[in-house]
Design a protein that fits this description.
By secondary structure, the protein is an alpha+beta fold. The protein has two domains: 12-74, Winged helix-like DNA-binding domain superfamily/Winged helix DNA-binding domain (Arc Repressor Mutant, subunit A, Orthogonal Bundle); 79-132, Ferric-uptake regulator, C-terminal dimerisarion domain (Dna Ligase, domain 1, 2-Layer Sandwich), CATH 3.30.1490.190. It contains five helices and five strands, in the order αααββββαβα. It has helices at residues 12-22, 30-40, 46-58, 103-106, 127-132; strands at residues 63-65, 73-75, 82-86, 92-95, 121-124. It has a three-stranded mixed beta sheet, with no helix packed on it. A two-stranded antiparallel sheet has the order 1-2. The longest helix has 13 residues, at 46-58.
């Protein structure tokens, strides 16, 4: 059985949860992941899904996305990017910076600081919700 970063085994449950998150573009929360995995692995529990999501996050295979007090969502995209959160419908979308240069050159950081991760969320209304209002 393949091994995860950190030496952990890739169990059947971990594989199922990872495949669901990796093929999702909607940044699902644990409940959404559970509903999708349950169709593929009916015996899996919600507690197992939470534990697997935590393990996959710690191993660096997925990212946790936290916007305000909303449920934690999960993102398979490990590239440097930010998220746009629609305050009306709750949709979370990957967004990318325009322009060139590394992260240290785009932000005013303390002298000598080094960025190890990017976790930026912008909030507003998505085009569909703007059109509706």
């Amino acid at each position: 059985m393949p091994v995860l970063p950190g030496g952990m085994r890739m169990t059947t449950q971990r594989r199922e949860v990872y495949e669901v998150v990796a093929t999702s573009c909607d940044h699902p929360c644990a409940g959404m992941v559970f509903d999708r995995v349950k169709k593929r692995a009916p015996s899996i529990s919600l507690a197992t899904v939470y534990n697997v999501l935590e393990t996959l996050s710690r191993c660096g295979l997925i990212k946790q996305i936290n916007v305000d007090r909303d449920a934690t969502r999960y993102c398979p995209n490990l590239e440097d990017h930010a998220h746009f959160y629609c305050e009306a419908c709750g949709e979370v979308t990957d967004i990318y910076r325009k322009g060139q240069g590394n992260i240290e050159k785009r932000w005013e950081l303390p002298d000598g600081a080094r960025v190890t991760a990017v976790d930026v969320a912008l909030k507003g209304r998505c085009p569909r919700c703007v059109e509706k209002s």
